[in-house]
Amino acid sequence: MAGELKEENKEQASDLFFGKKERRRYSLNRNFVGDYIGLEYHPVLQSLVGKRERVDFAHTVTKYDRRFKPSKLDLLLTAKHLTLIGREKSKEKANKGQLVEVVKRQIDIAHILSVGLSPYQDDFLILNVRENYTSLLETPFKTELITALSKHFKERTRGGILQLEFLQTHTITLKKTRFGGGTRQISFHVAGVSQRAELKPNGKVLHVTIGQGLPNTTRPALARPPTGYQRRVDKLRTSTRKTPSRPAPPLHSSQQYANSHGITNELPTSIVDRRPSGQSGVSQISTGNASRYGGVPTALVQGRVEPRGADVRPAPRPNKPKPPAKPRLYPVVKALYDYDAQDTDELSFSAGDEIELMQKRKLMTIEGTKHYCYYLRLKRSRLDDSGWWQGKIGDKIALFPANYVQE
Known about the structure:
By secondary structure, this protein is α+β, with helices and mostly antiparallel strands. The protein contains ten helices and 17 strands. The longest helix has 16 residues, at about 1-15.
């Protein structure tokens, strides 16, 4: 039932983009996980949206400001709100100077006017809010986010359909500040084959260029075909059964002698014919033994004769013992889902793969507190225990999401 539900979710998500947006090759069949932050390790985030509120989607997204400068925010989606949470230095005396989580924006789902996307394979989405400013976001899990958002919008508005606008150019309404409001534009272009978007701000316009993706009519693969290895084995078995048996060759002189003396334990001619030259077995006759027993093979006299049958084959050689496995220095975790790396410092793996867990906390040494805090804001989830662990597959050491594996 769980597998059928996952396939149904993929199919519903595919319907939202079918014929309208190009798809990414490695994200088309990705399973929906929901929590990509690890809320169980961050109770503060849960408390900011309500301890009793169920979070259906949680991920650290990239948000762009009026100057198109990126920053990292935690996006939490519940049945009522879409909440963006950032970090600021505390002004309280007890925690003065420390980074604390604060709600940057909370949007009532019913107030979302539309969601803008491009027709290409990029990860940008534009949240247009009724009588309010626009949020420009980027997330590799946009399909899962929009699927969940569309579901809650329908529930929140009692049957309403979330408007999805697939355009090459979108207009962004800025937040009104002391510097004023105004608008910006984001223009999308396709060129080359790169799957990573290239951003070029030019005044009030942000140009986003990305390579060609899969056709917008591509559907997720709901069932995997059998591997080529299995098909070759089946073909081999079929051909073996249908191979016609060879005609029996003429009897050897020793066999004629045995038959003339009434010896019934004769060698099958098929076995004699299948024995390759130089191979030891009952089909080979020793001259010395034949002279001792009047030309009758020793194997025949002692009754050591293999049974009749066309499937008799020589005994296989014993396999060489496998070398002992090298002891692992780290504990091993097992992957529950497939994951395709979104960055160069991440691991890619498939469900069932084993990963050596090196540490549950990605620690880095950065000179100076100022630089540390800046990097902490950009890649917070990579530096603490918010769900990103460091592991090893083969010779590669990189990060991977903790909620994709089982200890």
